[in-house]
Amino acid sequence: MDPFLQCLRDALGGDRVSTVPADLATASRDESDLPPVAPRCVARPVDTAGVAAIVRACRDAGVPLTARGGGTSLEGSSVPSPGAVVLDLAGMDRVLEASVEERLAVVQAGVVFDRLNERLRPTGLFFPPTPGGSADAATVGGMVATDAGGLFALRFGGTRRWVRGLEVVTGDGSVMRTGCRVPKASAGPDLTHLFVASEGTLGIVTEVTLGLCPVPEARRRGGWVLPGMPAACRAVADLLMAVPDLAAVEVVDGGTVGLFEGAATGDARAGDLLLVEAHGRPAEADAALAACLEAVLPHGAWPLDPAAGDPWDLRHRLTRAVRESAGGAGVVRTDAAVPLPALPSFVDDVLERAASAGRRAHVFGHAGLGILHVLMPLGGPGAWTRPEALGEKTRLCARAAALGGTVSGEHGIGLANREALARGSAGTLPWLAALKAVFDPAGILNPDKVFDAGGGGA
Ligand SMILES: Cc1cc2nc3c(=O)[nH]c(=O)nc-3n(C[C@H](O)[C@H](O)[C@H](O)COP(=O)(O)OP(=O)(O)OC[C@H]3O[C@@H](n4cnc5c(N)ncnc54)[C@H](O)[C@@H]3O)c2cc1C
Predict the structure, then answer these.
(1) Could you tell me if 307 and 299 are in contact, meaning their C-beta atoms sit under 8 angstroms apart?
(2) What are the residue ranges of helices labelled H in 62-174?
(3) pTM of whole model > 0.70?
(4) Is residue 281 exposed (0-12), middle (13-18) or buried (19+ Cβ within 10 Å)?
(5) Which one of 46, 68, 256, 445 would you pick to mutate in the ligand 1 pocket, going by the greatest count of ligand atoms within 8 A of its CB?
(6) Dist CA 309 CA 331 (whole Å)
(7) I need a labelling partner for 295 at 20 to 30 A (CA). Which of 141, 234, 405, 453 fits?
(8) Which atom of ligand 1 is nearest to 77's Cα?
(9) 274-295 pLDDT tens trace
């Protein structure tokens, strides 16, 4: 028996450390299309002491460690570092406390987003950031580690806004508690949010104290077909002037809608979609939707056929539908974000360049926040070659950064956005690397992600 594996088994119990090929295969990939990397083993702790014991064993042996929640990263964040132990947190899925009075929940990091909100339903509260099509698998720990956002981040912000405190195991195996239960603190520099979006490179989140929000009394959804994506994007600023607290403003290009031939989208099937959702008391939400209609009409909007089904259902399925359309060849993607005034020309440029090259680019996203998902399929009709798509991705990320936006609005850096981050980081990377050395002196925590600019990735 390998002494290192024996040490992990002694720490957790024999059945909680697996080298079974099927387990290694599952842990070797995430929902990006990056090549799998087989881990050394999969460790499944059930408590913080177990996590700390695994971190210490890895530190002493100099073995890398990649935390894994639901494995739904689209950027390779949860693909294991070479030779790594995968720390699978799915077993740490308890909701430890839910307080209506304080509007907070304390949860273990492995609880799945949908399960948490199901558990909270009787309280009338919910945890708002919604990681779209992965809500049934993404964990709160993974959402903290990527600052996941989604449809409602426009009104409610991303995960960051809701994190009040954390329990974290740092790279030397110490257990640290940050933050507090109250919603506002000025007690020195904010360590809690340093771990948000750190993708398992600074510490392992074991417990999260989350603020919660009352479930809105009424939700109203509107959808229109617009004469082109630039027009849809131009309408966004007017929508947000008319109704500043809209819950969601989404765009979907007609080519992507076209993947759902036969889906219940009625007249929208061939058009570019603009979707909104308003929350509030029933009369407020109705008034918000009426104001949205007034704002979009001058942009040439016409209504979706209400009998034709729910375009939001389609919205939730886009990421996986585009991937399926590539027939297993994969996609190269960006989730860059740009300031609203630049959104129409950014979109126009993406679609024009793809069309003139005879390539298929799928563009959709959280337009109210300037976040656009651009997916370039490597298989199926209008497929890109990988070098072409990576070149286009590099160009788009550089453009987004130059416009004052970012190379990732919500999916994170992982492996696939490392180079783009390094190019657009404006000198911050050395400071981030210095921080990593403080929290992870042995450099074992997901070491090839975020900070390491080497390598390419799709
Ligand atoms: C169909 C689909 C739709 C999606 N839509 C959205 C969307 O709308 N918005 C959005 O923001 N994202 C979206 N995502 C991306 C993804 O779901 C999010 O990034 C999510 O937060 C990842 O959670 P996870 O538990 O699966 O994390 P994983 O993929 O397991 O891990 C992600 C990163 O977090 C680290 N990590 C995981 N758990 C911990 C922990 N406890 N402590 C420290 N580090 C940890 C991992 O090491 C890795 O670096 C989508 C993904 C898919 C497949």
Answers:
(1) no
(2) 113-120, 140-146, 153-156
(3) yes
(4) exposed
(5) 68
(6) 28
(7) 405
(8) 49
(9) 999 999 999 999 999 999 999 9
